[in-house]
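[Archive record]
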Amino acid sequence: MMRERKTIKNWNCEHEVTAVCSDLIRFPSENPPCDVAALAMYISEYLQRAGIPTRQISSVPGMTSVIAELDFGPGPCLVLNGHMDVVPAGDRTRWSFDPFGGEVREGYVLGRGASDMKGGLAALLVAMAQAARWDTLRGRVLFMAVPDEETGGWYGTRWLLEQGFTGDACLIAEPSGINPTIGQKGALWLRAIARGIPAHGSLSPLVGENAILRMTQVIKTVYSIWERTWAFPPEPRRLISDTQSTLREEGLGVQAEALDHVTVNVGRIAGGDKVNIVADHCEAEFDLRVPIGISVGDVFSLLRQLVEEQVGSGVEIAPVRDPSEANYTSPADPFVQLVLRTIREVTGGTPRPVLQWASSDARFFRRHGVPTVQFGPAELQGIHGYNERVTVAQLVQAARVYALLIHDYLSPGNGECHLVEA
């Protein structure tokens, strides 16, 4: 039976997408340890009930990905990507509800991952199930539910791309609100190790050299890079400025300010052996995010120089893992324009392409030359915090956007959607 595109824009999927989001939250897929096997089975069974073939593949034990494909014959391939892992819930006593209860209350779905990003993943699944009923599209939809995004994506998205799973364009259901994300900052995670000379604590600071004190100097030096100003190439400067304006209009002034700075967080520190021994070692780990238009290598070189000048010898500093450069897809790219048009049609709003102040698996697709956009339901202020939630209204909008995007990407100029009655 033929239905026009407006059917998708008014598609009544509220009950289904809410139920799926709630179900996904009930799987406590915290990372670490990132064992998503049970959640991967749920996703596989959901898609299989919709008649979509799936398979599960693992890069390492527990790091399971779900791959599903809608094949409508020759044509372009649209990748839909979402991660199954969530950050740890932390202190349960500081939540107002069970972080893994998936409760639906007053127009919200509540729980860890509701916004980042089981809400987006639920909307992808419901859109895939709907698209499986259409019979006049051309091309393929490659769906990926992946692990490991919250700790770098090496064993999820990056690994899948290395195995040859790719396409012509990619939509990642990361939380965004109405404005899709087209670029992100680089990530530079560093480990610093300070060495000292042990001695009896009762004679400190007269004897020995305390590595913990030396590390406090390192921390101060690393944090000083926040104060630096940078010269940006024209296009990155324009994209940063446009995004800052948009974020400030939305009340996200902190995020706006972070975009043109190298942000710094010391997230872990450990040192010494015993309270009455002058510490001869101390280790700290730092998370730095680097703006587009600035080389991660240049930032690292500058930091090493500053540490050597201001702290001196006895300090080692090196990346914890492979750094990632800042990256973006041009706002003029046809896929970006299609996503913007689709969001406008569904929401009636005026979406603007923006940059992300953090990073995600999008960088891996862009490294492979795949135009990539992030769009997903979110209450942005609650991501990674206590009492995370997402609105049911945004879940519905996201599912409609994804369904319309599938339709229009695989049937350019068609204007109609042909459904096969269940």
